[in-house]
User: Fold these one by one.
Assistant:
Number 1:
Amino acid sequence: MACYTKVEKETCIACGTCGAIAPEVFEYDDSGFSQSVLDNNKGVQAVPEEVAEDVEEAYEGCPSGSIKLNDTPFKPKTPVSS
C-alpha cells in the first residue's frame, strides 16, 4: 500500500534522526529543518516501496512528531483569509 510523507517544519527540531534512517527521503533545507525530498515536502508523491519501511521507522522515531505519514496524498494548505 502506498504511503505519503512530509515534515511539519514548524515543529522540527533538526535532530537528524529522519535523515540518518531514511536519507533517500529526508534531508535538511536551507534553514536547517528536515524536509521530504520526494516532492519538495508537499506529501503528494508516494514513498517508493523500497524505502517505505525506513520512512515508517523515521516517523516512529521522530522525537517532535514532525514527520507526518498518510495513506493518501496530503491536501495543500489553504491560506487563511482575513
Number 2:
Amino acid sequence: MNFLWSLFMRKPALRQFALLDAQGRCQAFKECNQPPVGNGWVEIDEIRLSWMHRPLPARARVSPRPAQSSRHQPLAA
C-alpha cells in the first residue's frame, strides 16, 4: 500500500551545492534536499564538472533562500 501512495506523493526537489576552499575554488559537489552541514558550502543553480578545482563563476550561485517558518503566516492582516 505504501508503494501506491509513493506514486502520488510529490518528491521534494533536490538542490545543488558546491564546497569552496579559502580561495573560492570548487572542491566538491553535493545534491540534497537541505543545505549540507559545515562551512564553505554554497548553493548553485547547476553542477558542472568543469568547475572542479577552479573558481566558481559568480553567475552559478543561487541567491540565499529565506528561512521557512514552521508556522503558516496569514495572507492578509
